[in-house]
């Protein structure tokens, strides 16, 4: 499977309500940059840091359900 196919599959699953596939696909040392000047803007250097400082606040704000 190519990287493009994997990403396409992961986001298609997320659209169907499967958030776990996305987070399972992230490397532990993922580098993630959220652009802008929002409370979650910044550069994150691990999966744990991304989940704690970006995803969890977004989930709480938008009530997306369980992860």
Structural descriptors:
52% helix, mainly alpha, 67 residues, 2 strands, single chain, Nuclear Transport Factor 2, Chain: A, globular, two-stranded antiparallel ribbon
How are the elements arranged and paired?
Layout: H1 3-15, H2 20-25, E1 32-34, E2 42-44, H3 47-62
Antiparallel strand pairs: 1-2
What's this, in brief?
This protein has helices at 3-15, 20-25, 47-62, and strands at 32-34, 42-44.
What does the model show?
The protein has 67 residues and is mainly alpha-helical. It has a single domain (3-62), classed as Roll (Nuclear Transport Factor 2, Chain: A). Helices cover 52% and strands 9% of the residues. It contains 3 helices and 2 strands; from the N terminus they run ααββα. The chain has helices at residues 3-15, 20-25, 47-62, and strands spanning 32-34, 42-44. The protein has a two-stranded antiparallel sheet. The protein is globular, with a radius of gyration of 13 Å. The N and C termini lie far apart (26 Å). The model has no long low-confidence stretch (mean pLDDT 89).
Encode the helix/strand succession as letters. HHEEH
What is the approximate shape? globular
Q: Radius of gyration, Cα only, in angstroms? A: 13 Å
CATH class: Alpha Beta
The CATH level-2 architecture is identified as Roll
Mean pLDDT: 89
CATH topology: Nuclear Transport Factor 2, Chain: A
Roughly how many Å apart are the termini?
A: 26 Å
Largest sheet: 2 strands, antiparallel
- Strand content is 5-15%
According to DSSP, the number of beta strands is 2
Q: Strand pairing plus helix content: what structural class?
A: mainly alpha
Give me the side-by-side strand order of the main sheet: 1-2
Low-confidence stretches: none
How many H/I helical runs?
3
Number of domain modules: 1
Roughly how much helix do the residues carry, as a percent range? 40-55%
């Amino acid at each position: 499977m190519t990287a493009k196919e994997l990403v396409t599959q992961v986001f298609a699953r997320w659209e169907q309500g499967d958030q776990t596939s996305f987070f399972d696909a992230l490397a532990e040392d993922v580098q993630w940059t959220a652009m802008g000047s929002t409370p979650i803007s910044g550069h994150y250097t691990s999966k744990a840091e991304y989940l704690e400082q970006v995803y969890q606040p977004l989930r709480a704000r938008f009530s997306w359900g369980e992860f």
